[in-house]
Design a protein that fits this description.
elongated
């Protein structure tokens, strides 16, 4: 981002290209942490956390540090509160016996 600002004097579109490349990379990383196996999806909260971390970094890098700090604190609070709610589906799956296990030994 600092390099994009440096080249902005010569080429005004350099900041938008820098942001585009950054967001493409964050999208790739966010998609890579979501895994699906059968009927179970893992990493569904990690992908938005990566996006928010990137957005906070961009806000701070473009001198909107107050926006980055505010979004970071709100996101941390929301994720902390969301973890306190019970997840009935996941608890039910953990209680179900594995049909492939050999429990008759």
């Amino acid at each position: 981002m600092l390099l994009g600002r440096h080249f902005a004097d010569a080429d005004p579109s350099s900041i938008s290209r820098t942001l585009q490349g950054f967001l493409s990379g964050i999208g790739f990383l966010g998609g890579a942490v979501i895994f699906k196996g059968g009927f179970e999806v893992k990493g569904i909260k990690a992908a938005p956390a990566i996006w928010i971390t990137g957005a906070v970094g961009l806000a701070i890098a473009t001198s909107y540090w107050w926006l980055g700090v505010t979004v970071g604190l709100v996101t941390a609070a929301v994720m902390f509160i969301a973890d306190s709610f019970p997840d009935e589906v996941r608890e039910e799956k953990q209680e179900m016996p594995n049909p492939n296990s050999d429990s008759k030994k």
